[in-house]
């Protein structure tokens, strides 16, 4: 079970990084922005 949790967290971090890069490039859709904000809240990022 620990491996599943680690994989889930890794996936969320990868999605966060992907969306941050996309935001920096200016190609972020409204739904992706909402997802990014949710990930920021969940992961405790500012």
Kindly describe this structure.
- The protein is elongated.
- It is an all-alpha fold.
- Helix 1 packs across helix 2 (30-43).
- 83% of the residues lie in helices and 0% in strands.
- The longest helix has 24 residues, at 2-25.
- It is built from two helices and no strands.
- It has helices at 2-25, 30-43.
Write the topology of this structure.
Blueprint: H1 2-25, H2 30-43
Helix pairs in contact: 1-2
Strand content: under 5%
**Integer-rounded radius of gyration:** 11 Å
Order of helices and strands: HH
Number of helices: 2
Query: In angstroms, what separates the terminal alpha carbons?
Result: 29 Å
Helix % is: over 70%
Q: For the residues shown, what is the average pLDDT?
A: 94
List segments where confidence is low: pLDDT < 50 over at least 5 consecutive residues: none
Largest sheet: none
Q: How does the helix and strand content classify structurally?
A: mainly alpha
Choose one word for the global shape.
elongated
Care to count the β-strands?
Answer: 0
